[in-house]
Amino acid sequence: MQYMSKKERYSFYAGLSGQNLVYSFIGASFFTYFMTDIAMFPAAVVTVLLIAMKVWDGVNDPIIGAMVDRHRFKNGEKLRPFLRYTPLPVGITTVLVFIVFSTREDLLWLRVSYFVIMYIAWDLVYTLQDVSIWGITAMVSPNGDERDSFVKWARTIGSVVYSVFSMGIPMVLEMIAKATGSSMALMTIVFAIIFGLGGAMLSYRTYYAQERIRVNPQKQQTSLLECFSLLFKNKMLMLVTLSNLLGAVGFGSQLVTYFFKYKIPADFLGAGSFIGALGLTTIYAAITGAPGFLGMLFADKMKKIFKSYVNAIIFMQSCNIVVRVIAYFIGYNGVGLWIGLGLIGIGCIPLGAASIAQTSIFCDSIDYMEWKTGQRMEGVTFSMQTFFTKISSGVTAGLATLALYLMDYKAIDDSVGVFVGTQSAAFEAWIWPLVMLTPALASLLSIIPLLFIHYTPEQRAQVEKDLQERRAAAGIAVE
Question: Which three-class secondary structure state does DSSP give residue 459?
Fold first, then answer.
């Protein structure tokens, strides 16, 4: 039986696109570049900030998820009302994070204090919205196949929007700033209003999603301690989460802009071009990442071929390892750079379906825990997803800025114009292997936990059948 209407699906996808507009501005590599080369925070300070912010995420996310699981609104809903109340605060705090009121060194402490306060405020409201958005994907239908289809297109559309705008925003921002003579700080604020506040307003449409799976409130966990104890008994969830965390080792992806700025001549694409390091980073991301959208479209096919999404992810990561090692040895001189990037793009075609596969596994783990314990934990489960997504991005960015510090990196203002040959010998020697090989190492490490997940299609079918029978016996209606 199909439960979701087309209007419900399309409205949710539109709202999810809005949320990804926000995150494309604050969650991608541009955020690190903003801190080092626009806000002009020293690399060592950025390293400390990123690590501290992600420690905050670690405290913040699971607690919010647990509180969501324990709370019910008067109408009996758990997640949906948050999709109405959070967009405006998310939009406002996104704009405030990107305000650079000074770059004076003697005001560094004040600038850092302001930035930390604004980021904490943004992270609180964004986490609440993100947990609710992804948590409700496990509640929209008791039909596992319908839910998988919904998750597939949600992840595909969200990833397309995030990728296109996280690649395009920095490039267009830089080009407009150069063409108009405006400062990067000013253009950043303008773009934050358009994509941060504007995207947040569009995310209101996720409210159209309906909660159809509900568990007797008396059976829900009554304390945070019990909630976390159940969470850590979810072996499937823990192993996927560990896999994601190990993927943070691929911090070279955060160094691409610095590679293009200081290793590739300014006239690489022709004299007089408005495309700088940020624009080249966009081109790099398009070549290496855009083919992954094909993998998203064929996620269900890969699942059938490899018998499960777990096996499919192992294959995806293996492809990434092989092509990156080959690209490293080809090098970046002349046409070799384009050949290497093309190979990475081909190898990343299957990797594009990784987020779909992981979300489906998360949904399966929620069903499995309800089957074992009688309790559903959408809030905590998907808070773990957002927690480790942000932890991973924070660790990745922190390792990247730490690498910059160890390579004695010194930021040079964009107005100087000539950057090649201005960095240290350590930077010259290490930037290419870090960019190419650390993501391959991350893929290798992330495979290891997945080898210990054993959840067959037959087990999944039995769990869904048993849960339907239990709900019917308990008189719990599915709308």
Answer: helix
The whole-angstrom separation of Cα 235 and Cα 233 is 6
User: Which residues have a Cβ under 8 Å from the Cβ of 369 and sit 6 or more positions away?
Assistant: 230, 233, 234, 375, 376, 377, 381
What CA–CA distance (Å, rounded) separates 51 from 396?
A: 9
> Which residue's entry shows tokens 């509900």?
214
- What is the arithmetic mean of pLDDT over 185-206? 93
Q: Which two tokens stand for residue 325?
A: 């090692």
Q: Match 């596969």 to its residue by tokens.
A: 357
Please state, in angstroms and rounded to a whole number, the distance separating the CA atoms of residues 144 and 148. Answer: 6
pLDDT tens digits, one per residue of 13-56 = 999 999 999 988 887 778 888 888 888 888 888 888 877 877 77
pLDDT digits (tens, 9 = 90+) for 197-235: 999 999 999 999 988 876 554 445 455 566 667 677 788
CA distance to 173, 183, 221, 257, 276, per residue, from 266 (Å): 17, 19, 59, 13, 7
In angstroms, what CA-CA distances link 132 with 79, 267, 365, 472?
5, 47, 17, 26
pLDDT 10s digits, 75-108: 778 888 899 999 999 999 999 999 988 777 788 8
* Residue 391 Cα to chain centre, angstroms: 10
User: What are 99's two structure tokens?
Assistant: 């305000």
**C-alpha span between 166 and 444 (Å, rounded):** 26
Smallest CA-to-CA distance from 387 within 228, 230, 214, 209 is with: 228
Q: 51 phi and psi, to 5 degrees?
A: -65, -45
- Residue 248 and residue 450 in contact, taking contact as beta carbons nearer than 8 Å: no
Extents of the domains making up the chain = 8-210+228-468
Are 99 and 110 within 8 A, CB to CB? Answer: no
CATH C-level class of 8-210+228-468? mainly alpha
Measured CA to CA, the distance from residue 303 to residue 230 in angstroms comes to 28
Kindly state the tokens that stand for 94.
Answer: 């996104």
